[in-house]
Amino acid sequence: MATPVLDRLARAACEAGCAVFLSDAEGLVLEERMRDADRRAFHRSNLAPGSDWSEGQEGTNGIGTCLAEGRPVTVWRDQHFRATNTGLTCMGAPVFGARGELAGVIDVSSAREDMTEGYARLVALTVQDAASRIEADLFRASFEGARILSTGAAEESPQGVVLLALDRDDLVIGATRAARRQPGPGGGADGPGARDRSVRGQARRRAGRAGRGAAGRDGAGAGARGRQCLGGGARSGDRPRHLLSQVEGAWSERVRGRGGAAPPSCPCRAIHPPGYLKQDKG
Questions:
Q1: 273: containing domain
Q2: Domain closes at, from 119, 142, 165
Q3: Do residues 132 and 15 both lie within one domain?
Q4: Cβ contacts of residue 21 below 8 Å, gap of 6+?
Q5: Overall domain count for the chain
Q6: When comparing pLDDT for 47 and 188, which is higher?
Q7: Predicted TM-score (pTM) of this structure
Q8: Percent of the chain with pLDDT over 70
Q9: Euclidean distance between CA atoms 94 and 9, whole angstroms
């Protein structure tokens, strides 16, 4: 899946004497793109497929440090830990999976002595763009069949690509790491306050539809049950807590807080895949 993006990046980077590398989440180099004339310079530093470039193995470097910090990094020549790597300037950007987990790193390294700071910044931005493209492709492939919602002009933020996956009821079933970390009252998009608001808002719409559909059968009863389930009682402490567990349901009926199953007549039940919108610790 990453091959087209890596090939496109290599067409621009390799002509400038740079090499392109893709590692996994452990720092193991999986793929490389470079000109034959530059191969010896990079392989002399053991920067090649099959080598371990985690920070524990190589110290400070464009791949391992990027994995350790979970953000784009640029490591200049003498900033490398090992003396054998001080001939390299490395620009790395993390690639996150569909569930927000760290999946790997794209690294562009240069062995040129005349690498300037301005050019390095340009390369670093290009690497981040390539990482966002791969992340978006991974997300769309993981939620094939779902409707993918972009935030429009702000789809690609400095923190990564911002995408949501919606099911046929327009309930959110997936979110990229950047989407989970969008700022807002009560924390990021995966913070307790935002998650509570998101789930309640989704469930309120669903409960409203269910209440209107059931009005012909038993009057306002279904609508009242929907409002009760959504916390429409006189005291907020009376609200059932099962709504907060919908995004972490793991296809089960379990709930957090008070425990037990949601009311069988609840019209706002939503089932989501496991791990969705868990608190991001990265």
A1: 178-282
A2: 142
A3: yes
A4: 29, 31, 32, 33, 47, 63, 106, 107, 108, 109
A5: 2
A6: 47
A7: 0.63
A8: 61
A9: 15
